[in-house]
Amino acid sequence: MLFLELARFPDVALLFMRVMVGVVFVTSGLNLTTAVQAADEPCLAKIFFANGATSARLPGITVEDHHPVVSVRINKNGEDLRFVFDTGAGRTVLNRAVAQRLGLQATAKGSLGGVGTGRVDVDIVKNATIQLGDVRLEGVDLNLVNDVHGDKATVGIIGYDLLCGSVVALDYKQPSITVTAPSVFHYQGNGDVLPLTFKGRWPYVRGTLKVPGLEPVTDDFLIDTGSEDAVNHPIIRQSKGELREAQTGAGGFGQSLAGVIGPNEWFLIGNTTIGPTYSVCCAGNEDVSRQLGGQVLSHFRIIFNYPGRSVVFEKY
After folding, report:
1. How far is CA 249 from CA 35, 91, 135, 193, in A?
2. Could you tell me the pTM of the whole model?
3. Could you report the per-residue pLDDT of 250-291, keeping only the tens digit for each?
């Protein structure tokens, strides 16, 4: 998603390993309305499986710097395109130059926003078809932007349109993504099955964060597979630990903001405690200031069941 960038602190980078210092891979938190969306957004994309199947494992899945990447084709075009699989992306996004190369014609306009302040204008290709191996999505609107903010080979972002009508299992270690029809999904594992809540098209799960010198805080956190962060929360501003200035949302949709970065002692989700990480504060949009990114999420195999309003965390 539009994660909170911890930019330009090489000394912090040594502590963080790869906690995004100086990295700008801003991919989600996309919301095309100017007002806060309703709690339950309609699922407009229709999902189909090849050969009468009810489940399919997607081909070409990689995980790059904690970002799951999928291979897609658009409107029966034979070109394989790299999209970030981003649970923080409420809309499907495509690089404008790629859309032109594929002959896609925009017929509407809109805007999107994210971690930063302000909004970015987009052109919209209506009612596209996206093919992900043996899974086909119909009725997808493609929101065209000049820069997806990944490497040059990554040209798009997909999230809600894939998730809203299916059950999606993400395995960071294999790596793999398996898509299943909700009608046949029954979980029988030993993971933590937790309720999902939604703000518009963004999924939230309950967790507890401990920062130095303060009591633990329990809150709802945006699950954001497009973010390279660990766990972010505004409470970090009050931390008694060492804080550093940072730019949040730099290079993403909207303008960057002045913020802070500092250490966490632990984070609890379900029955699993994740040890020390770092937090950044804060986003231009309050709804994405409480966020779980890839550095925490990659400790788990995660099953997203949007139709059933639940998520499963299986600790590796």
Report:
1. 20, 18, 33, 31
2. 0.86
3. 444 556 678 899 999 999 999 999 999 999 998 777 888 999
